[in-house]
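Worked example 4.2. Below are the chains of a multi-component assembly; read each line carefully before continuing.
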Amino acid sequence: MGFLEEFSFLTEAFAAVTWQHVVMWIIGGVLIFLAIVKKMEPSLLLPIGFGAILVNIPLSNVLTDADTGAAGIIQWLYETTIETSEALPILLFIGIGAMIDFEPLIRNPKLMVLGGFAQIGIFLTLLFAVLFGFPLLEAAAVAIIGAADGPTAILVANVLGSSYVGPITVVAYSYMALVPIIQPLVIRVLTTKKERRIRMDANVGKVSKPVKILFPILITLIAGLIAPKSLALVGFLMFGNLIRECGVLGSLAETAQTTLANLITLILGITIAFQMQAEAFLNLQTLLIMALGLFAFTFDTAGGVLCAKVMNLFCKKKINPMVGAAGISAFPMSARVVHQLGRKEDPSNYLLMHAVGANVSGQIASAIVGGLIIGLVL
Amino acid sequence: MLPALLLLNTEDVISALNIFWKGMLAIAIVIALIICVTLLISLADRKIRETREAAENDPPEDGEQPT
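Applying the procedure described above to all two chains together yields the following structure tokens:
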């Protein structure tokens, strides 16, 4: 008996395990499975999945240390880099900006309309979330899943003080990975075969270097002056792009695209797992957030497609409505999906550059809408 | 969830509707501005390039012809 008592510390954690912890381990395992086997957003879902297991092992020191009361590593990372400063999602935008080539958008600026209108799903989801009983702040945090952009979703949900940052992040990244399934369904429902075969002009012509340099600076000024709350996201996105386009910071641009983006993604995934503790994650609201996330992605896609169809009523040069779907952000997967769909309808139809144009406009628009939501709700 | 549906907070619904139209209007304004600015800088750039090319392609004046 004395021997067992002496070594009871070895069984303390076992005794503290609840069925909720076990469910979270399974969820973590499923996320790791999806990341490795199905290759769904592996860079994010794998760290989140493993983190979900980590933070649901009772009495560990990754959260608050039970003995000393000090913040564990994951708690410290979350409180320092997300909760108090939103540093990780914002810094990730430098890497994203450095990856983006705005040339297709500069060549055909009217594609920006598609990016803007494809954000309608965010506002519709906000309305539906309120109708489903979420308080306004939580509804806005859930709606931002429709931004189809992980860092924006994390930042907005955190700034709004949402208690669902974990589910929102997981749902946002999961649906981004499911874009190749969700978008073709919506597109097929809303378009005819004839519309899907519309060809668009190649839009040849070179965008000069001064224009490419001026573009991020001017977008920063416009977004900052009209929607100041979006400046952290848009500003860092454009900063990354300026590094890329300036032509004198080649190695920094390379670092931002690869090392910086990879490092932040790695830490962001495991840090966000702080919000995946069983007591916060396992509730009916998480299921509802999953449903609302799907709703947001569906209506974003529909918004872009329908916007393109309306534009076709007035424009001389027709837009393939599928390009509108790429306006949802989810860069660059959405553009790729649209291009592949176009080629399936007509193998000689190349929509990639137009889709990329709409896609990067969605990236800008989603960051701006994130800021607008914060400004309008708070 | 059903009770939540029944106990609808009308104040939040009205706020959500307000955010809807204000947000869509704001994004429309931002986009219109971005389009205008992009078109303007592209136009200015094209004009500058055309002027420069025209200057380069112009034959020298008679007085400057080498003898």
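Take a moment to check your reading of the output against the notes. Residues 31-55 of chain B form one domain. The CA atoms of residues 22 and 56 of chain B lie 51 Å apart.
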